[in-house]
Amino acid sequence: MSNYIEYNDKIAFHPGYYIKEIVDESGLTQKDFAKRLDTTPKNLSLLIRGEQSLSIDIAMKLSRMIGTSVNYWLKLQNAYDALTAEFRSEEELLEERKIFENFDYKFFRENYGLPDLPRKMNK
User: Fold this and answer.
1) What is the separation of C-alpha 9 from the centre of its chain, rounded to a whole number of angstroms?
2) What domains are defined for the chain?
């Protein structure tokens, strides 16, 4: 998994993307950074790769360690979650449109009382 997701013209950055930059700029190994953050190297690695959501606990530890607010980190996670949910929703809508293209409107008109209107599909 990546610590960012590209979809159409948008990119959703996982908080791990920014944490990786901080670790890289600190000159510390991930293991040493994890120790200072009071977490396991595995937990930090999962977070950096975007395979785990940022917890409130880690957000608090990061904020103390580098001088940011807890809210800053939680907003990053929330923005990532919102964008990835939007991406999934758009993908589902595209899949549904593909499915509905195969349905004959006449069947629904005759069996479910839909009005006899021209079929319009937004593409």
Assistant:
1) 15
2) 4-88 (1.10.260.40)
